[in-house]
Amino acid sequence: MTNASSSAAFPRREFLKAGGALLIGFAIAPEARAQPPQPELIPVDLAPGPGQPDPDRLDTWIAVHADNTATIFFGYVDLGQGIATSILQIAAEELDLGLDQVKTVRVETGSGPNQGNTGASSGINRGGPRIRLAAAEARQALLRMASTRLGAPVDRLTVSRGVVSVAANPAQSVTYGQLIGDRHFDVPYTGTAPIKDYRTYKIVGTSVPRVDMPDKASGAYAFMQHVRLPGMLHGRVVRPRGQGSYADGARVTNVDAASIRDIPGARVIRRGDFLGVMAPSEWSAVQAAQRLRVTWDLPAALPATSAELFERMRAAKTIDRKVLDRGDTTGAFAHAAHVASGRFDSPYQAHAPFAPSCAVADVKADSALVMCSSQGVYGVRPTIAALLKMPLEKVTVQFYQGAGSFGHACFNDAAQAAAVMSQEAGAPVRVQFMRWDEHGWDFYQPAHTADVKIAMDSNGKLLAYEYHGWHHTWSFTETTAQLAAGQPVAEGDGPRAQALTPFNVGDMYAIPNWRIVNHRVPGMKGYLKGGNLRSPLDVAISFGAEQVIDDLAYTANLDPYLFRRQNISDDRWLAVLDAVAKAANWTPRKAAANLSSARVVTGRGIGLGTHLSSYGAAVAEIEVDKQTGVIVAKRMYGALEAGQAINPGIIESQISGMMVQAASRVLKEEVKFSATNVSSVDWVSYPMLRFGESPEVTAIVVKRQDQRPTGAGEEALASGAAAIANAFFDATGVRLREHPMTPARVLSALKKA
Amino acid sequence: MATRITVNRRVRDIDAPADTPLLYVLSNDLELHGPRFGCGLAQCGSCSVLVDGVETRSCVTALGKVAGKTITTLEGLPAWYAEQRKLPAAPALHPLQQAVIDEQAMQCGYCYNGLIIKGSELLSKVPQPTDTQIRTAMNGHLCRCGTYPRMLKAIQRAARVMAGGAQ
Fold this sequence. Notes:
Strand content of chain B: 5-15%
Number of strands of chain B: 5
Strand order of the largest sheet of chain B: 2-1-5-3-4
Oligomer: heterodimer
Distance between the termini of chain B: 49 Å
């Protein structure tokens, strides 16, 4: 349990300096909280373990080759956001190499370092410092070698593109390749090498083009879905069309193998309740999966409607935790001039990566190779070893990029399924989920329902802020392991639990009296499988809390931007708020001041949001058709401050994508279900924002090059959702308290108003 | 019985059942990386190819339906473009492929097979598409990373380049 006073005494900035992400994030030991700040800000999951290289050796991180190039061994995976390029920029900068002289290699267990799962904007934020320090340390080691070779002291040497020269006599030089060429440094990694002053950077801070894009544009690039092995069979999982209650699983009552007898080479694989089909040709496997007649036992244990879901969560015997309790919140509400409040409901939402998860496994009697798109190859490895009953060291897991997964999608499930099927078949097996498998068996962002209450004094100064949120947490049992091995469902606990934090609830405002209560709905019976989806919880939080802030601005007869401004004291929050308002050419006026009787009305809104670190702000300009109920986000402005911007161009791309995703999530996306199972299993039943509906986006990177990078993968998303919600009020004078803001909900709200 | 198709200017005899979706022929028999599985339902566009110059969802198009036809995948776009424009040789990339790189449009890039195929088809029919024409033409192609605004710019850029104008 988080101690309220320690949270209050541990403000965000100090928290970040101490390493950040201590509350949430995988494999972060809670005891790390008590440790003194670590200079290199590395998570504690770098401890050496069996079957992985020693993180305390320099050779684990960097190899310098005879051709004067270097390979960087990076433990985080590029999920399509471009961190491979950014990490090379960091390495090249510290090594004094050109960007064309460095490369990364495929992330693989055993040979690559274990930096933990990629998630929570961790790639650059948590992974970058180690690479920066390792590169600096390698450069130092190389300079010492050069000093001996050239007979000049280190401080008389200069380096450019891996050529070390004597400053006074540039003709006297030697290359990195000549100094060490493909031999090991064979020195410890200490993390103590001095790093460059950011003001001297030549590569970091520039928008170099991404290294992977030419091959992706030409069609040369190999995604996971393109991996083929000789003698490989094609496999498909066979499951009910859409998951039911997670803890209840799905039980096979009957399989009619004869139903696929006419499909050449097709066979059924069954282990426990895990069912799959395999065939030499992919089309045969696809047909077999569709035609196999299976009777499933799926109890009617889910709520029948989303309304019932929210009531079930609120009525549950929850595990309540005061995340923060500062000041006298109850007293402040009692005496405040104005109080605004509301209940807000947010649905289950799906990752639904554009490419359904895919994996290829080659399981032999004494070893296994699994190629997959896991966001944590070291995380999934022991689960595969357990399923195969094989020692950990005998299992190698390799990462191949699939489509952007944005959190815990089905990649590990597919990896396990391929491993099980390959073991059963005695041959390599490629498993690709069908669209309904991916949509239907996802680890959804859990639904969230909130009560938000915020008070201000008669001068429009915030006095008290209270947030109660109900949700169940994330799950970590993959469906293959559940069905094949009867593995009981596991809820994330401690730092692996989804929870409200002082950073994603209200952090932006100067609030003297502040209470956050996390109502955790325990158990997974009667709920769907939950997982972390990009900026977990934050869309729901900002959708609700930022609307209540807006309500207060309205009550105070103040412009919503200026109202926020007068209630923020943190420079970094002010900077993103001001940046986005400026970009949007925001002219102050009270919201909903220009209500029109026209059929199509327009509105603008502003919102703030974050996840664990970094600062996000957005403005949305929308149109509402009052006759059809259709909302279109016409234009969005997103500002993000993520500390030091390694590659501002990539961050702009992230912001732009986040604004479009924010529109998609707040206007369109909702997992649908009946009492027995999920029913939204494709792009028709689970609509997302389309090209024709896309807002124009202006992305603003607020740079703090003197700060450490804090991650740019998710923190503007929630602000975009809030801006759209507030724009709806500006357009109509009506609040929508549940998303997605579908035409039916819009029409219903307008009718009631 | 083999089915004869022309893929990226090469004649291919495919020994697969006629009901096999073209996508599986292209990605398994011919090991092409352009068309790729996204939904298998013609909802998303990641499997798109040009069949006789028309954008077609290969995941729901049976091999037998394209017998004798000419298929162009992402890999074959430069040569297809050269043929269309009567250029002496194929460029390294179709102008839209290059524009996607120049705009740094993609994120994961998985949907870009379909976005580039559809965008190329559009530009072959409407050399200077308006914003609305681009949005309408591209509306059947989804992008989960949310890169629509940058893809729109890439199409506009390619249109300028193809018209011989400044980039």
